[in-house]
Amino acid sequence: MIETAFILPILVMLLLGLVSGGTAYQRKLSLQNGAREGARYGATLPVGNVANLNAWLDDVKNTSVNAVDDGLPTGLSGRYICIAYVFPNGTGTADRTTRRVEDSAGTVTYSNNTCFTDSRPATERRVQVVLQRISVLDAMLVRQSITLEGKSVARFEAVAG
Question: Over the stretch 134-144, which tens digit does the pLDDT of each residue have?
């Protein structure tokens, strides 16, 4: 009985930690899949098919978020979405580097930046997607918040629409 009383709390902590860690890992994979799906979709979506570049970024964002298991709802802790159309040599308003960032409150901002520095050639057109959220690892006495991130970049391959 005494041995069980000592071992049982440790065993429960380990089991809760495994379940919590497995959930966090599944969320991480889902974010990565959403980022990859969004980048691939954006790489094949002609910029000319939408009213303007901001609408194009909104479309890519919707595809990315819909590919995530829970859809990254507004208000989710640590929610961060960044979509960028990177065209280093583009100068036209409908065909230049533009970034869309959305925070956990749903506030959207547009700018002429990239989401992150990638290893692609500096002259290449590409689509960048970053999806983030906070998850909690919980093992009874130990509780730790971690930021999960899915990040992807794809070469822009679309032809004129």
Answer: 999 887 788 89
Element (H, E) at 36: helix 2-44
CB-CB neighbours of 53 under 10 Å: 21
Specify whether the CB–CB gap between 67 and 83 falls below 8 A. no
CA 69/CA 34 separation, integer angstroms: 8
What's the pTM value of the predicted model, to 2 decimals?
0.89
Percent helix / strand / coil, the chain, rounded to 5:
35, 30, 35
8 A C-beta contact, residue 135 and residue 27: yes
What distance in Å separates the CA atoms of residue 157 and residue 134, rounded to the nearest whole number? 33
Give residue-wise pLDDT tens across range 44-101: 999 888 888 999 999 999 999 999 998 899 889 999 999 999 988 776 666 789 999 9
Burial class (CB in 10 A: 0-12, 13-18, 19+), 34: buried
What is the distance between the alpha carbons of residues 24 and 18, in angstroms, rounded to a whole number? 10
Work out the widest C-alpha separation in the chain, in whole angstroms: 76
